[in-house]
């Protein structure tokens, strides 16, 4: 009887090793880690914004609408609970992405406005904050890319045979990836017009 039990345990262990459960676990954990890094970089950007707005406000108080746009966009981002479960809820995930996109747009408008104020562009505090913001935007891009790759790897495991059977058995589902809000707009080349001297 003892040998039969050992044989059954050995057979069960061998069958489970090929079922993909461990691969599902490791790829799911990679998604969580990658998503945590995305959130970390978004938080870094959100933390920089009040200082940036205050510096710009001191030089360009008449740009109230742009400054309010950045502040309001940051508030919308902050109002969304960025939990690890967020990427399992497609609707909440889309809202989060949309809010981050609005914040990116508002920051872009702010940086365009800054071009009108040479004294602001030469301010040491502003230059430091702008450099930190640019570095953070680069970190966001890298973190998003890692997340996208982790989701891609996970989704391949969830959809591939025979691991798709294990995924169905344990409730693993395809996860959403990060997307661009307006893919058509980014595929159109920008118009460049040179003004007359």
Please explain how this structure is put together.
This protein is mostly helical. The protein has a single domain (22-179), classed as de novo design (two linked rop proteins). The chain is built from 8 helices and no strands. It has helices spanning 2-17, 21-59, 64-79, 90-114, 118-121, 124-159, 163-170, 183-187. The longest helix is centred in the N-terminal third of the chain and has 39 residues, at 21-59. The chain starts with a helix and ends in a 10-residue tail after the last helix. It is a single-pass membrane protein. It comes from Nitrosospira multiformis. Pfam families: LemA (PF04011).
In short:
The chain is an all-alpha fold.
What fraction, in percent, of the residue positions are helical? over 70%
Just name the CATH architecture.
Up-down Bundle
- Rg (CA only): 24 Å
**Which structural class best describes the helix and strand composition?**
mainly alpha
Biggest pleated sheet:
none
User: Could you name the CATH class?
Assistant: Mainly Alpha
| CATH superfamily label | LemA-like domain
Overall mean pLDDT: 81
Q: Termini distance?
A: 95 Å
Described by the principal axes of the CA atoms, the overall outline is: elongated
Task: State the low-pLDDT regions, or none.
Answer: 182-197
As a percent range, the share of strand residues is under 5%
Tell me the number of structural domains: 1
Order of helices and strands: HHHHHHHH
Q: What is the count of β-strands? A: 0
Number of helices: 8
What's the CATH topology label?
A: de novo design (two linked rop proteins)
């Amino acid at each position: 009887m003892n040998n039969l039990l050992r044989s059954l345990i050995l057979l069960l262990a061998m069958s489970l090793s090929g079922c993909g459960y461990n691969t599902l676990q490791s790829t799911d954990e990679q998604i969580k880690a990658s998503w945590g890094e995305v959130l970390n970089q978004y938080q870094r950007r959100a933390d920089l914004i009040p200082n940036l707005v205050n510096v710009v406000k001191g030089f360009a108080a008449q740009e109230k609408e742009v400054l309010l746009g950045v502040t309001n966009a940051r508030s919308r981002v902050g109002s969304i609970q960025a939990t690890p479960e967020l990427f399992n809820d497609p609707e909440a995930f889309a809202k989060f992405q949309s809010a981050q996109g609005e914040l990116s747009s508002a920051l872009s408008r702010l940086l365009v406005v800054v071009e009108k104020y040479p004294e602001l562009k030469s301010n040491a505090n502003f230059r430091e904050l702008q450099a930190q913001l640019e570095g953070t935007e680069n970190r966001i891009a890298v973190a998003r890319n890692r997340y996208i790759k982790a989701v891609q790897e996970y989704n391949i495991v969830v959809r591939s045979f025979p691991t798709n059977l294990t995924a169905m058995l344990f409730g693993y589902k395809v996860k959403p990836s990060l997307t661009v809000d307006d893919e058509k707009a980014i595929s159109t080349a920008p118009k460049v017009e040179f003004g007359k001297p």
